[in-house]
Amino acid sequence: MAVTSEHTALKGTQTFGFFALIEAAKTRYTRHRVYRQTVNELSALSGRELADLGLHRSMIRRVAQQAADEFTPR
User: Fold this and answer.
1) Which of 13, 38, 49, 63 could bond 45 through an S-S bridge, CB–CB 3.0 to 4.6 Å?
2) 44-68 residue pLDDT tens
């Protein structure tokens, strides 16, 4: 009987680990989408529009990475 209880507890932790892995993958995917969307939108702007925002074209990837890092999933 004790073996069954331990087996059930172990099974529950494996399931939780699996769902945690899925959630981590979803979060990484969503952050990557935020990064790509930010890069695409800023890249579409002209040099003058970027200057109005206080940015240079070489700063786009860094700004996009900051946006992705600051993203918190719901």
Assistant:
1) 49
2) 999 999 999 999 999 999 999 999 9
Handedness of CA 53, 56, 59, 64 (dihedral sign): positive
User: Which pTM value belongs to this model?
Assistant: 0.72
> Cα 31 from chain centroid?
2
Buried b / exposed e along 28-50 (16+ C-beta atoms within 10 A): eeebeebbeebbeebeeeeeeeb
| Cβ atoms 71, 30 nearer than 8 A | yes
CA dist list (Å): 41 to 54, 57, 58, 72: 15, 12, 14, 20
